[in-house]
Amino acid sequence: TRAFYGIVNASSQLKIPPDAGDFRLLDRRVVAALNALPERNRFMKGLYAWVGFRTEFLPYTPQARTAGSSSFSARRLIRLALTGVTAFSNMPLRIWSGLGALVALGGLGYGAWIVLDHLIWGDQIPGWATLVVGLMFFGGIQMLSIGIIGEYVG
């Protein structure tokens, strides 16, 4: 969990304390602000920081669970982590943009290799070069464009 909060804090403007618990004492104004938000998949620790009210921490020692076990499965924890990263960070969009640029550059590099291969050794498979280079280049450009548009919207 500390690694997760480190990733969220490094990739967003919000700072979520890694040792903040899930139990809160909230003022009525904070509750009203949280209820006014349209989010369906809520990462509450991020929303508490995002609404912008003053926060005080009360130290306490949590007691060990006396019965039962956590209802969060690994799948739900992963979903919660993805919601936390995507809701308060542009990092996934930047990664997507960078990946798109790499794929487009890879397509151009592969195209240059195919041209050199044809000029030096005379090897050629009809249609293969244009198909692969075109797909890689334009696929990369699409990924880059989606990342840029997402960055603008996000």
UniProtKB/TrEMBL annotation:
The keyword Transmembrane helix applies. Keywords: Membrane, Transmembrane, Transmembrane helix. Coiled coil: none annotated. InterPro entries: Glycosyltransferase_2 (IPR050256). The keyword Membrane applies. The chain crosses the membrane at residues 95-116, 128-149. It comes from the Eukaryota. One of its GO terms (cellular component) is plasma membrane. This is Glycosyltransferase. It comes from Hemiselmis andersenii (Cryptophyte alga).
